[in-house]
Write a structure and sequence with these properties.
mainly alpha, globular
Protein backbone atom coordinates (compact mmCIF):
# COMPACT_ATOMS: atom_id res chain seq x y z
CA UNK A 1 0.00 0.00 0.00
CA UNK A 2 2.79 2.45 0.88
CA UNK A 3 4.51 2.24 -2.55
CA UNK A 4 1.14 2.84 -4.21
CA UNK A 5 0.49 5.92 -2.07
CA UNK A 6 3.95 7.29 -2.85
CA UNK A 7 3.45 6.75 -6.59
CA UNK A 8 0.09 8.53 -6.48
CA UNK A 9 1.60 11.45 -4.58
CA UNK A 10 4.34 11.76 -7.19
CA UNK A 11 1.75 11.69 -9.99
CA UNK A 12 -0.11 14.48 -8.23
CA UNK A 13 2.71 16.92 -9.07
CA UNK A 14 2.44 16.80 -12.90
CA UNK A 15 -1.36 16.76 -12.62
CA UNK A 16 -1.45 19.98 -10.62
CA UNK A 17 1.17 21.58 -12.88
CA UNK A 18 -0.90 20.73 -15.94
CA UNK A 19 -3.98 22.31 -14.33
CA UNK A 20 -1.96 25.45 -13.57
CA UNK A 21 -0.86 25.72 -17.19
CA UNK A 22 -4.40 25.21 -18.53
CA UNK A 23 -5.76 27.79 -16.08
CA UNK A 24 -3.10 30.25 -17.22
CA UNK A 25 -4.05 29.73 -20.86
CA UNK A 26 -7.79 30.07 -20.21
CA UNK A 27 -7.34 33.23 -18.17
CA UNK A 28 -5.38 34.82 -20.99
CA UNK A 29 -8.18 33.98 -23.44
CA UNK A 30 -10.76 35.66 -21.20
CA UNK A 31 -11.53 39.32 -21.95
CA UNK A 32 -10.32 42.08 -19.66
CA UNK A 33 -6.99 43.52 -18.59
CA UNK A 34 -6.17 43.21 -14.86
CA UNK A 35 -3.75 46.14 -15.02
CA UNK A 36 -6.38 48.39 -16.60
CA UNK A 37 -8.99 47.28 -14.05
CA UNK A 38 -6.64 48.10 -11.20
CA UNK A 39 -6.02 51.58 -12.58
CA UNK A 40 -9.70 52.34 -13.16
CA UNK A 41 -10.78 55.25 -11.04
CA UNK A 42 -7.26 56.09 -9.92
CA UNK A 43 -5.93 59.59 -10.42
CA UNK A 44 -4.12 60.02 -13.74
CA UNK A 45 -5.71 57.14 -15.62
CA UNK A 46 -7.72 59.43 -17.81
CA UNK A 47 -4.87 61.81 -18.47
CA UNK A 48 -3.29 60.36 -21.59
CA UNK A 49 0.42 59.73 -21.18
CA UNK A 50 0.43 59.40 -17.41
CA UNK A 51 -2.23 56.69 -17.58
CA UNK A 52 -0.38 54.91 -20.37
CA UNK A 53 2.87 55.03 -18.41
CA UNK A 54 1.22 53.66 -15.29
CA UNK A 55 -0.47 50.91 -17.31
CA UNK A 56 2.81 49.92 -18.94
CA UNK A 57 4.55 49.91 -15.55
CA UNK A 58 1.97 47.57 -14.02
CA UNK A 59 2.07 45.21 -16.96
CA UNK A 60 5.85 45.11 -16.76
CA UNK A 61 5.80 44.59 -12.98
CA UNK A 62 3.49 41.59 -13.17
CA UNK A 63 4.95 40.24 -16.44
CA UNK A 64 1.64 40.78 -18.25
CA UNK A 65 3.60 41.98 -21.27
CA UNK A 66 5.70 38.78 -21.37
CA UNK A 67 5.06 35.52 -23.27
CA UNK A 68 2.85 32.92 -21.63
CA UNK A 69 5.70 30.46 -20.99
CA UNK A 70 7.65 33.07 -19.03
CA UNK A 71 4.61 33.97 -16.91
CA UNK A 72 4.01 30.28 -16.14
CA UNK A 73 7.64 29.70 -15.12
CA UNK A 74 7.55 32.85 -13.00
CA UNK A 75 4.44 31.65 -11.18
CA UNK A 76 5.73 28.10 -10.69
CA UNK A 77 9.22 29.10 -9.52
CA UNK A 78 11.57 28.45 -7.90
CA UNK A 79 13.18 31.39 -9.73
CA UNK A 80 11.67 34.86 -9.82
CA UNK A 81 11.68 36.05 -13.45
CA UNK A 82 10.46 39.59 -12.78
CA UNK A 83 12.52 42.77 -12.81
CA UNK A 84 13.60 42.07 -9.22
CA UNK A 85 14.34 38.41 -9.95
CA UNK A 86 17.38 36.35 -10.88
CA UNK A 87 20.16 38.02 -12.80
CA UNK A 88 20.44 35.34 -15.52
CA UNK A 89 16.84 36.20 -16.58
CA UNK A 90 17.56 39.94 -16.73
CA UNK A 91 16.51 40.83 -13.16
CA UNK A 92 18.26 42.88 -10.51
CA UNK A 93 18.81 39.92 -8.16
CA UNK A 94 16.93 41.62 -5.31
CA UNK A 95 14.36 38.81 -5.06
CA UNK A 96 15.79 35.77 -6.83
CA UNK A 97 13.48 33.02 -5.55
CA UNK A 98 9.72 32.51 -5.31
CA UNK A 99 6.77 30.78 -6.90
CA UNK A 100 4.34 27.96 -6.25
CA UNK A 101 7.06 25.34 -5.73
CA UNK A 102 8.30 27.35 -2.74
CA UNK A 103 4.82 27.99 -1.35
CA UNK A 104 4.71 31.57 -2.63
CA UNK A 105 1.26 32.33 -4.05
CA UNK A 106 2.14 35.97 -4.80
CA UNK A 107 0.14 39.04 -3.79
CA UNK A 108 -3.20 40.24 -5.07
CA UNK A 109 -3.03 42.42 -8.15
CA UNK A 110 -5.56 44.92 -6.80
CA UNK A 111 -4.27 44.85 -3.22
CA UNK A 112 -0.50 44.39 -3.45
CA UNK A 113 -0.11 44.50 0.33
CA UNK A 114 -2.29 41.39 0.75
CA UNK A 115 -0.52 38.06 0.45
CA UNK A 116 -2.76 35.49 -1.20
CA UNK A 117 -1.53 32.65 1.01
CA UNK A 118 -2.51 34.49 4.19
CA UNK A 119 -5.86 35.56 2.77
CA UNK A 120 -6.58 32.05 1.50
CA UNK A 121 -5.87 30.52 4.90
CA UNK A 122 -8.19 33.04 6.52
CA UNK A 123 -10.95 32.23 4.04
CA UNK A 124 -10.46 28.49 4.40
CA UNK A 125 -11.19 28.79 8.11
CA UNK A 126 -14.70 29.75 7.02
CA UNK A 127 -15.23 27.39 4.09
CA UNK A 128 -13.74 24.15 5.43
CA UNK A 129 -15.90 23.89 8.60
CA UNK A 130 -19.03 24.67 6.56
CA UNK A 131 -18.14 22.11 3.88
CA UNK A 132 -17.18 19.46 6.44
CA UNK A 133 -20.43 19.99 8.37
CA UNK A 134 -22.45 19.81 5.15
CA UNK A 135 -20.70 16.60 4.10
CA UNK A 136 -21.24 15.01 7.52
CA UNK A 137 -24.91 15.98 7.49
CA UNK A 138 -25.35 14.65 3.96
CA UNK A 139 -23.85 11.26 4.83
CA UNK A 140 -25.72 10.96 8.13
CA UNK A 141 -29.03 11.42 6.32
CA UNK A 142 -28.26 9.89 2.92
CA UNK A 143 -26.91 6.53 4.07
CA UNK A 144 -29.86 5.51 6.31
CA UNK A 145 -32.34 6.93 3.79
CA UNK A 146 -30.80 5.03 0.86
CA UNK A 147 -30.47 1.84 2.91
CA UNK A 148 -34.07 1.95 4.10
CA UNK A 149 -35.33 2.67 0.58
CA UNK A 150 -33.45 -0.35 -0.77
CA UNK A 151 -34.69 -2.68 1.97
CA UNK A 152 -38.29 -1.42 1.62
CA UNK A 153 -38.33 -1.19 -2.14
CA UNK A 154 -41.63 -0.09 -3.73
CA UNK A 155 -43.07 0.81 -0.33
CA UNK A 156 -44.84 4.10 0.37
CA UNK A 157 -41.74 5.44 2.11
CA UNK A 158 -39.55 4.49 -0.82
CA UNK A 159 -41.81 6.29 -3.28
CA UNK A 160 -42.03 9.34 -1.04
CA UNK A 161 -38.24 9.47 -0.64
CA UNK A 162 -37.85 9.18 -4.42
CA UNK A 163 -40.05 12.21 -4.97
CA UNK A 164 -38.39 14.20 -2.17
CA UNK A 165 -34.87 13.42 -3.34
CA UNK A 166 -35.75 14.22 -6.95
CA UNK A 167 -37.13 17.61 -5.92
CA UNK A 168 -34.10 18.39 -3.78
CA UNK A 169 -31.71 17.49 -6.59
CA UNK A 170 -33.56 19.73 -9.04
CA UNK A 171 -33.71 22.82 -6.82
CA UNK A 172 -31.02 25.39 -7.78
CA UNK A 173 -28.71 26.42 -4.95
CA UNK A 174 -29.38 30.15 -5.27
CA UNK A 175 -33.15 29.57 -5.13
CA UNK A 176 -32.87 27.30 -2.10
CA UNK A 177 -30.67 29.84 -0.29
CA UNK A 178 -33.07 32.70 -0.94
CA UNK A 179 -36.02 30.56 0.12
CA UNK A 180 -34.30 29.62 3.38
CA UNK A 181 -33.63 33.28 4.07
CA UNK A 182 -37.26 34.21 3.44
CA UNK A 183 -38.64 31.42 5.60
CA UNK A 184 -36.26 31.50 8.58
CA UNK A 185 -35.07 35.12 8.46
CA UNK A 186 -36.53 38.29 9.90
CA UNK A 187 -39.10 38.49 7.09
CA UNK A 188 -40.46 35.04 7.94
CA UNK A 189 -40.29 32.98 11.13
CA UNK A 190 -37.33 35.02 12.45
CA UNK A 191 -35.66 31.92 13.88
CA UNK A 192 -32.15 32.13 12.43
CA UNK A 193 -29.75 34.82 11.19
CA UNK A 194 -29.30 34.89 7.44
CA UNK A 195 -26.19 37.03 6.86
CA UNK A 196 -22.58 36.90 8.02
CA UNK A 197 -20.67 34.67 10.41
CA UNK A 198 -21.69 36.37 13.64
CA UNK A 199 -23.70 39.27 14.99
CA UNK A 200 -21.86 42.60 15.30
CA UNK A 201 -22.40 42.49 19.07
CA UNK A 202 -20.91 38.98 19.40
CA UNK A 203 -17.54 40.34 20.56
CA UNK A 204 -19.03 41.31 23.88
CA UNK A 205 -20.52 37.86 24.50
CA UNK A 206 -19.02 35.05 26.53
CA UNK A 207 -17.21 32.23 24.73
CA UNK A 208 -20.20 29.90 24.99
CA UNK A 209 -22.66 32.51 23.75
CA UNK A 210 -20.31 33.51 20.92
CA UNK A 211 -19.99 29.86 19.84
CA UNK A 212 -23.75 29.44 19.90
CA UNK A 213 -24.12 32.59 17.81
CA UNK A 214 -21.69 31.25 15.18
CA UNK A 215 -23.50 27.91 15.12
CA UNK A 216 -26.82 29.65 14.53
CA UNK A 217 -25.29 31.63 11.66
CA UNK A 218 -23.98 28.42 10.11
CA UNK A 219 -27.23 26.43 10.10
CA UNK A 220 -28.73 27.81 6.89
CA UNK A 221 -25.47 27.79 4.86
CA UNK A 222 -24.81 24.18 5.89
CA UNK A 223 -28.33 23.13 4.91
CA UNK A 224 -27.95 24.91 1.59
CA UNK A 225 -24.64 23.17 0.93
CA UNK A 226 -25.79 19.73 2.05
CA UNK A 227 -29.13 19.13 0.33
CA UNK A 228 -27.75 18.51 -3.17
CA UNK A 229 -25.11 16.04 -1.97
CA UNK A 230 -27.68 14.39 0.27
CA UNK A 231 -30.00 13.74 -2.65
CA UNK A 232 -27.24 12.37 -4.87
CA UNK A 233 -25.62 10.16 -2.23
CA UNK A 234 -28.92 8.66 -1.06
CA UNK A 235 -29.76 7.49 -4.59
CA UNK A 236 -26.29 6.05 -5.03
CA UNK A 237 -26.62 4.23 -1.70
CA UNK A 238 -29.99 2.83 -2.73
CA UNK A 239 -28.70 1.65 -6.11
CA UNK A 240 -25.58 0.09 -4.62
CA UNK A 241 -27.57 -1.72 -1.92
CA UNK A 242 -30.10 -3.08 -4.42
CA UNK A 243 -27.31 -4.44 -6.59
CA UNK A 244 -25.58 -6.02 -3.62
CA UNK A 245 -28.76 -7.68 -2.30
CA UNK A 246 -29.05 -9.66 -5.54
CA UNK A 247 -25.43 -10.86 -5.47
CA UNK A 248 -24.61 -14.56 -5.18
CA UNK A 249 -22.72 -14.24 -1.91
CA UNK A 250 -25.74 -12.60 -0.24
CA UNK A 251 -27.99 -15.44 -1.38
CA UNK A 252 -25.39 -17.91 -0.12
CA UNK A 253 -25.30 -16.20 3.26
CA UNK A 254 -29.08 -16.46 3.54
CA UNK A 255 -28.99 -20.10 2.45
CA UNK A 256 -26.53 -20.82 5.27
CA UNK A 257 -29.19 -19.69 7.73
CA UNK A 258 -27.65 -16.40 8.83
CA UNK A 259 -30.00 -13.83 10.29
CA UNK A 260 -31.18 -11.02 8.04
CA UNK A 261 -29.47 -8.44 10.23
CA UNK A 262 -26.15 -10.25 9.88
CA UNK A 263 -26.60 -10.69 6.13
CA UNK A 264 -27.31 -6.99 5.66
CA UNK A 265 -24.78 -5.62 8.14
CA UNK A 266 -21.80 -7.89 7.49
CA UNK A 267 -22.14 -8.98 3.88
CA UNK A 268 -24.31 -6.56 1.89
CA UNK A 269 -23.73 -3.17 3.52
CA UNK A 270 -19.94 -3.31 3.48
CA UNK A 271 -19.81 -3.86 -0.27
CA UNK A 272 -22.58 -1.34 -0.95
CA UNK A 273 -20.48 1.32 0.77
CA UNK A 274 -17.64 1.02 -1.76
CA UNK A 275 -19.28 3.28 -4.40
CA UNK A 276 -20.18 5.78 -1.66
CA UNK A 277 -16.57 5.87 -0.49
CA UNK A 278 -15.47 6.46 -4.09
CA UNK A 279 -17.91 9.35 -4.49
CA UNK A 280 -16.61 11.04 -1.34
CA UNK A 281 -13.39 11.80 -3.24
CA UNK A 282 -15.11 14.48 -5.27
CA UNK A 283 -17.89 15.63 -2.95
CA UNK A 284 -15.80 17.39 -0.32
CA UNK A 285 -13.50 19.27 -2.75
CA UNK A 286 -16.58 20.21 -4.77
CA UNK A 287 -18.24 21.64 -1.67
CA UNK A 288 -15.13 23.72 -0.92
CA UNK A 289 -14.54 24.93 -4.45
CA UNK A 290 -18.18 25.31 -5.39
CA UNK A 291 -19.40 27.22 -2.35
CA UNK A 292 -19.37 30.55 -4.18
CA UNK A 293 -23.17 30.79 -4.50
CA UNK A 294 -23.85 29.95 -0.85
CA UNK A 295 -21.14 32.27 0.44
CA UNK A 296 -22.41 35.11 -1.73
CA UNK A 297 -26.06 34.68 -0.68
CA UNK A 298 -25.25 34.45 3.02
CA UNK A 299 -22.45 37.05 2.88
CA UNK A 300 -19.70 34.70 4.07
CA UNK A 301 -16.02 35.56 3.46
CA UNK A 302 -15.03 32.10 2.27
CA UNK A 303 -12.82 30.64 -0.45
CA UNK A 304 -15.55 30.26 -3.05
CA UNK A 305 -16.44 33.92 -2.83
CA UNK A 306 -12.75 34.81 -2.93
CA UNK A 307 -12.35 32.92 -6.22
CA UNK A 308 -15.41 34.65 -7.66
CA UNK A 309 -14.15 38.09 -6.66
CA UNK A 310 -10.76 37.30 -8.17
CA UNK A 311 -12.37 36.22 -11.42
CA UNK A 312 -14.45 39.38 -11.55
CA UNK A 313 -11.37 41.54 -11.10
CA UNK A 314 -9.26 39.41 -13.46
CA UNK A 315 -6.85 38.81 -10.59
CA UNK A 316 -4.91 35.96 -12.15
CA UNK A 317 -2.99 35.05 -9.00
CA UNK A 318 -6.16 34.66 -6.90
CA UNK A 319 -7.85 32.46 -9.51
CA UNK A 320 -4.71 30.37 -9.92
CA UNK A 321 -4.32 29.89 -6.17
CA UNK A 322 -7.93 28.80 -5.62
CA UNK A 323 -7.91 26.56 -8.70
CA UNK A 324 -4.65 24.90 -7.70
CA UNK A 325 -5.91 24.31 -4.18
CA UNK A 326 -9.15 22.76 -5.46
CA UNK A 327 -7.19 20.54 -7.86
CA UNK A 328 -4.86 19.38 -5.10
CA UNK A 329 -7.75 18.61 -2.74
CA UNK A 330 -9.51 16.63 -5.47
CA UNK A 331 -6.41 14.53 -6.18
CA UNK A 332 -5.89 13.87 -2.47
CA UNK A 333 -9.59 13.00 -2.12
CA UNK A 334 -9.35 10.43 -4.92
CA UNK A 335 -6.32 8.89 -3.24
CA UNK A 336 -8.10 8.76 0.12
CA UNK A 337 -11.15 7.11 -1.46
CA UNK A 338 -8.96 4.45 -3.06
CA UNK A 339 -7.44 3.66 0.33
CA UNK A 340 -10.87 3.47 1.98
CA UNK A 341 -12.13 1.16 -0.79
CA UNK A 342 -9.16 -1.14 -0.21
CA UNK A 343 -9.98 -1.25 3.50
CA UNK A 344 -13.65 -2.02 2.82
CA UNK A 345 -12.98 -4.70 0.19
CA UNK A 346 -10.09 -7.09 0.98
CA UNK A 347 -10.05 -8.21 -2.68
CA UNK A 348 -8.66 -4.82 -3.70
CA UNK A 349 -4.88 -4.71 -3.53
CA UNK A 350 -2.55 -1.87 -4.51
CA UNK A 351 0.91 -3.25 -5.16
Amino acid sequence: MLPYVLRRLLLLVPTVLGIVFLTFALLRLAPGDPAALRLQGEEGVQSGGMGADALARLRREYLLDQPLWRQVLHYLGPFDLSERGVRFAGGSGEHPYGGLLLGDLKSELHRPHVRIRDELLRRLRVTVPLAASALLLAYLVALPLGLHSALRRASALDRASDVLVFLLYCVPTFWAGLLLQLVFGAGGLDLLPVLGLADPEAQGLSSGAALLDRLRHGVLPVLCLAYGSLAYLSRQMRAGMLETLHADYVRTARAKGLSERLVIGKHALRNALIPIATLSAGVFPALIGGSVVVETIFDLPGMGRYAYEGLQQRDYFVVLATTTLSAGLTCLGILASDIVCALLDPRIRHD
